[in-house]
């Protein structure tokens, strides 16, 4: 699988790491430092060399007017809080970044644009349409498309497999989800530190994560609703805040939690805010990019397969726009959408009822690994009023949504079936089987689609196949 190459930090940053960590902290700052004690505090990701001692981290942060919220020594990433507007400059602009400060800064165009677009990777998805039909099975065209009903007759998935849903939280009382949700493995990550309090991981303003969870492992016999792998466990890892943002520190916390808990699979139906693209050679962006990259890579080394949505902007990921759609900064070939563009992450495009690429779905040769049902309002099933996919929503109900956010959990569910069928298989092998067992989808007459049926820019290696996964 080829993808955007993981880039190292600039040479100047590497030199900066050495000077910071080998010189006494006091020598790098004045004996007395004027710290802001009244302004609003913001959270930052801060880079260190892996396994830097926590004492060294705490000393530097304090000397630069910050305090530690969390520290992940395995990857050398700290989450810090500071009231000082110049905190990132004090640490070094290639080592520290705050998404929340960027959003809050009224002098930047990013703030206004990010608020207006109501981020969280749901920018073009349909508003939830609640479905009240007594028997929901007929409406699950997406499950039939990937042969999930046949697969479930053979293997519903193993309780020893956990899928971490990095999203807006999972409704813990939903009748289709109570059997699968593992509260002990669930946390809130919006501060950058894992919080096991149920109030931290339960959904508040968005049923996005609940919808994703139902697609992966929901089951409600009374309503005839079944997800891809109803036998596996789910963990709610809340990384979306109440304003709809997923900041770098939340994503880092989520991936590190998945690694610590030994999840077999995570689903990531989002991109890291507030920018759409993060550029490893740009100040600020560099720290965010590297922090998330390290966390993703570490989780993979610990046995986690990370699955992500390709995005809903309808563009070719190999030919990104010259300027980030969410903020006014230049984009070049080194820039990446996080986490989907990182090495080892399975990226999923979306198809509608007719099996062709959804109009909104991003695509790209060597960028998309597989495709799955995400729905499309222009591809209506016979007699239906919506072409979106059905799953669990707030208040124990069921509803439809469209998006690559909906496609990704179909693939994550199939990956969970593969992991159930093949215990202890490393994530690279699960990913390889997911691609190998997919049903090939040719480009057809789509002009923008390039490549053969075996591997093309719209569908990657093909449509995920739940039945093949359990055989």
TrEMBL record:
Signal peptide: 1-28
InterPro entries cross-referenced by the UniProt entry: Peptidase_S8/S53_dom (IPR000209), Peptidase_S8/S53_dom_sf (IPR036852), Peptidase_S8_Asp-AS (IPR023827), Peptidase_S8_His-AS (IPR022398), Peptidase_S8_Ser-AS (IPR023828), Peptidase_S8_subtilisin-like (IPR050131), Peptidase_S8_subtilisin-rel (IPR015500)
Pfam (any one): Peptidase_S8
Residue stretches making up the Peptidase S8/S53 domain: 159-462
Record keywords, A-Z: Hydrolase, Protease, Serine protease, Signal
GO biological process terms, semicolon-separated: proteolysis
Active site (record annotation): 167 (charge relay system), 208 (charge relay system), 405 (charge relay system)
Gene3D superfamilies: Peptidase S8/S53 domain
Family: Belongs to the peptidase S8 family.
Name of the molecule in the record: Subtilisin-like serine protease
Organism: Saccharomonospora glauca K62
């Amino acid at each position: 699988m080829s993808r955007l190459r993981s880039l190292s930090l600039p040479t100047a940053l590497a030199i900066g790491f050495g000077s910071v960590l080998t010189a006494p902290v006091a020598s790098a700052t004045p004996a007395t430092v004027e710290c802001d004690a009244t302004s609003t505090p913001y959270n930052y990701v801060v880079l260190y060399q892996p396994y830097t001692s926590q004492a060294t981290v705490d000393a530097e942060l304090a000397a630069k007017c910050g305090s530690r919220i969390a520290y992940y020594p395995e990857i050398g990433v700290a989450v810090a809080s500071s009231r000082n507007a110049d905190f990132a400059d004090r640490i070094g602009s290639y080592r520290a970044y705050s998404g929340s400060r960027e959003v809050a800064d009224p002098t930047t165009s990013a703030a206004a644009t990010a608020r207006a677009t109501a981020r969280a990777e749901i920018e073009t998805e349909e508003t939830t349409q609640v479905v009240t039909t007594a028997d929901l099975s007929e409406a699950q065209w997406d499950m039939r498309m990937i042969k999930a009903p046949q697969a479930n007759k053979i293997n519903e998935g193993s309780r020893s497999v956990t899928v971490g849903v990095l999203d807006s939280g999972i409704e813990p009382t939903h009748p289709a989800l109570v059997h699968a949700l593992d509260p002990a493995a669930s946390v809130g990550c919006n501060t950058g530190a894992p919080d096991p309090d149920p109030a931290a991981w339960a959904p508040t303003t968005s049923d996005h994560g609940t919808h994703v969870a139902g697609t992966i492992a929901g089951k409600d016999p009374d309503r005839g609703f079944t997800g891809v792998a109803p036998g596996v466990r789910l963990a709610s890892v809340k990384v979306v805040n109440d304003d709809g943002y997923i900041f770098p520190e939340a994503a880092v916390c989520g991936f590190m939690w998945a690694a610590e808990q030994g999840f077999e699979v995570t689903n990531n139906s989002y991109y890291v805010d507030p920018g759409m693209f993060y550029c490893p050679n740009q100040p600020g962006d560099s720290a965010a990019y590297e922090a998330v990259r390290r966390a993703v890579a570490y989780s993979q080394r610990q046995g986690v397969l990370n699955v992500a949505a390709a995005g809903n902007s309808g563009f070719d990921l190999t030919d990104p726009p010259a300027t980030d759609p969410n903020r006014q900064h230049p984009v070049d070939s080194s820039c990446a959408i996080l986490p989907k563009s990182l090495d080892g992450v399975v990226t999923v495009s979306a198809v509608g009822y007719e099996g062709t690429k959804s109009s909104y779905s991003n695509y790209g040769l060597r960028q998309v690994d597989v495709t799955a049902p995400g729905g499309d309002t222009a591809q209506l099933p016979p007699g239906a009023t919506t072409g979106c996919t059905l799953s669990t929503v707030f208040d124990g109900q069921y509803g439809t949504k469209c998006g690559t956010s909906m496609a990704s959990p179909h693939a994550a569910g199939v990956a969970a079936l593969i992991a159930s069928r093949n215990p202890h298989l490393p994530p690279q092998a699960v990913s390889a089987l997911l691609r190998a067992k997919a049903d090939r989808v040719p480009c057809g007459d789509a002009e923008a689609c390039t490549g053969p049926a075996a591997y093309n820019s719209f569908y990657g290696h093909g449509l995920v196949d739940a039945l093949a996964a359990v055989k």
